[in-house]
Amino acid sequence: MSRRLVREKALQTLYQNELNPAGGDRSVEAAARSLQKETGEEEVSFFLRLTRGVLKEMPVLDPVIQRFLKKEWPLSRLSYIDRSILRLAVYELLFEDGIPEGATLNEAVELAKTFSSEDSARFINGVLGSMVKNMEEVRKLARTDFSG
C-alpha cells in the first residue's frame, strides 16, 4: 500500500473525528486494525503517527493554519474535509522530517481533488505554498505557546 493510500485513510479518520470528536482514539484504533489487514507494519506506523500526531498537535496546527488564511476566513469556516487536509499537511511539514515539502504539498492537493473540489485543491495549494515559502515563520509559530 502506498503512502498516498495511507494518507487517504488518515484523512478519512480525521474527518470522522471532526464529525464525532468523542470517537477520538477509538476511531484511530479501529482504522489502524482495518489497515493492518490490508498492509504492513510500516504503513500502519505511518498512519498512527499521522492521525495521532494531528489530533495531539491540533492546538499548534490550527493557529499556524489560521495565520495563513485570510482574516475573513477563520479556520472554522472551512469545510471539515479541507480543514482536515490542511491539518494533515501542516503536521507533515512540521513533524515528519523525512518527507520533502513538495511531496506533502502535492499529496494534500491530490487529496483535495479526490475528496473535495478543484476549487479546494487550488485553495489548499495556495495556503500550503505560502507556508512552504515561509517555513521559518511557520516553525516559529509552531513553537509559540498557544495555551494562553
UniProtKB/TrEMBL annotation:
Q: Which Pfam families match?
A: NusB (PF01029)
Q: Which residues form a coiled coil?
A: none
Give the CC-aspect GO terms.
cytosol
Name the SUPFAM superfamilies for this protein. NusB-like
Q: Describe the family membership recorded for this protein in Swiss-Prot or TrEMBL.
A: Belongs to the NusB family.
What does it do? Answer: Involved in transcription antitermination. Required for transcription of ribosomal RNA (rRNA) genes. Binds specifically to the boxA antiterminator sequence of the ribosomal RNA (rrn) operons.
Protein name, per record:
Transcription antitermination protein NusB
Q: Which organism is it from?
A: Melghirimyces profundicolus
- Kindly list the organism's lineage: Bacteria, Bacillati, Bacillota, Bacilli, Bacillales
Q: Source gene?
A: nusB
